[in-house]
Amino acid sequence: MSGSAAGTPQASVDRRLLYGGAAWAIAAIIYVAAHRADVEFALNWAFGLGFGFVLQRGRLCFASAFRDLFLLGHGRTMKGLLMGLAVASLGFGLVMSMQVPMSSLGILPPTANVLPLGIHTALGGLLFGTGMVVAGGCVSGSIYRMGEGYVASWVAFAGVMVGLLVSAYTWNWWWESVISSAPRLWLPTWLGHPGALTATLLGLGAVYLGVLVVEYRSGMVLPSPPGSRAASESASDELKAVTNRVFVRGWPVLVAGAVLGGLNVLLFTAEEPWGFTGEVSRWSIGVASLLNAAPPPLAGVNELPGCVLVPSEGHFFNHMFFLVSGMWFGSLAGALSAGEFRIRIPRRPVRYAQSLTGGLFMGYGAGIAMGCTIGAFFSAIPSLALNGWVFAVFLGLGAWVGTLIIQRIQ
Questions:
Q1: Could you give the C-alpha distances from 238 to 13, 15, 266, 334, in angstroms and in order?
Q2: Predicted pLDDT at 9
Q3: In angstroms, what is the C-alpha Rg of the chain?
Q4: Quick check: is 334 in a domain?
């Protein structure tokens, strides 16, 4: 009797409440402890939880956005990311117009991801795009899948760390040869704030139309889910329905993308744009330092915004640690609340090699491009920076190459 009861829907709901509730309680405890240590720690922990939760609920992965478009001909995830970019661009544009009212003077917003543009940007995007498809997930996709129990995503994350370390060993060559003399091109300098924002939104709209054309030509237009539901008979029923939509059911991709973009705007307003790989590079370099294998001092990194490589600082906790670890914990809490967590071990050993190799490509590409799909793309295009668009073009090209590779592997 007890064995059959364990498999009932009620038992499944109870497990979600127990595990999900415990995860959010732990998150709250960490928030309180972080707040006592440093308000900035707590702020970034809260943002990290939000980013991770939204990624998991909306299943937003940049790798699948490109791969599904090339391989299957549908753009569900891509449309969600485009919505997020549009929302973030509107918010970033407003913030930057207050930071630098006279854009024609050539002054750049201090924390926006306006990065040096050169061959490193293109090569970084190409390597990252190839690697994310081969690995089966970009950085954001790997984070939320790590929270869902995917072992291969943990392997890919380890590959990213190693790739970032390798890029740190070569950073000074890149700095001296290309990056130090590369221009930082901010669209409002030439177009003004309204013109730059209009051009960015038109560009995003053109990509959205292109996605629709691909979908209709491939016959892979996915139907929209029904929007109606039965009316609640009580306040308790309504509360359960709302909780189910937020914590259990998958989010509509446009909603998830818009929320992700909105969170990025709030983080930029409070501190700086959303980033990831700079902090992970600090972990990689820190581990190498413990093994007496640290790279040489990194030239010029203090002069640049974005997800630039971060040398080991000699202490473990900082605000970015809480942002990045919060992303993982937010995705874990989301997966537990929805009953979607379980340890998933690859069926074929080659999957480990595939994840590790893809992670290496992603890490090296992110290191030289000063950001991944988060910092060099999702936070750079809304910064109205030309480097974001160049990275995006080569990211797409790399994803196409990665798609060809996985078709041969499989």
A1: 17, 21, 29, 21
A2: 60
A3: 21
A4: no
pLDDT band (50, 70, 90) for residue 409: confident
Give the integer Cα–Cα distance in Å for 86 and 257: 9
On whether residue 194 sits in a domain, the answer given is yes
pLDDT value of position 8: 61
Note whether residue 38 is domain-resident.
Answer: no
Whole domain around residue 376: which residue ranges?
A: 61-220+248-323+350-409
Q: Which of 92, 96, 103, 118 is nearest to 176 (CA)?
A: 118
Q: Supply 137's token pair.
A: 């997930």
Domains of the chain: total: 1
In this prediction, residue 238 carries a pLDDT of 66
Q: What is the DSSP string of 110-162?
A: SSS---B-SHHHHHHHHHHHHHHHHHTS-HHHHHHHHHHTBHHHHHHHHHHHH
User: Residue 297: its pLDDT value, please?
Assistant: 94
Q: Classify residue 151: in a domain, yes or no.
A: yes
At 346-361, the pLDDT tens digits run 988 899 999 999 999 9
